[in-house]
Design goal:
mainly alpha, 0% strand
Length: 154
């Protein structure tokens, strides 16, 4: 498999983060009573940390997954000795975890093809059906999380 240039990968990452951020913010506002303008900084922080981790993964050789770099960056930035920890923690707390997880899992179903350009080539009908599946998964997962949260008192 031919490795993409950093520019091509960065564009794919940004497109992914825009989609996930829109869905996550919508879920946070509608499902968890978050405030739109308070949710945005938290999502931007998550996206910046993720972009940094993915960029590091691009340059560092080895088999360590990008999620390890992302987690490490997030943990270091949120530790008490970090000068930005208060800022990061304050805004990250404005975004409900379940609001972020559901769109990511829905997107994971689409990423099986690993390429949005190839995904779009299937035509508008395929894209339409896939979007219906994504939104159906999103709402069913959110509904299940709500029910289970109420049952187990979360």
């Amino acid at each position: 498999m031919e490795r993409k240039s950093l520019r091509e990968e960065f564009i794919d990452w940004c497109m992914t983060f825009v989609i996930v951020a829109i869905l996550s913010v919508a879920c946070n506002v509608v499902g968890y009573g978050g405030v739109l303008l308070e949710s945005l900084p938290g999502m931007l922080i998550f996206a910046a940390i993720s972009l940094a981790g993915l960029t590091i993964k691009h340059f560092v050789p080895g088999d360590l997954p990008a999620v390890a770099y992302i987690a490490l960056i997030g943990m270091v930035l949120a530790m008490p000795f970090s000068p930005v920890s208060g800022f990061i923690i304050y805004w990250a707390n404005k975004v409900n975890l379940m609001a972020v997880v559901t769109p990511i899992l829905a997107y994971a179903g689409v990423i099986v093809g690993r390429d949005w350009r190839e995904f779009v080539k299937i035509g508008w009908k395929g894209v339409f059906v896939s979007l219906l599946v994504i939104f159906g998964t999103f709402f069913v997962s959110g509904g299940m999380a709500e029910v289970l949260g109420n049952v187990f008192g979360m």
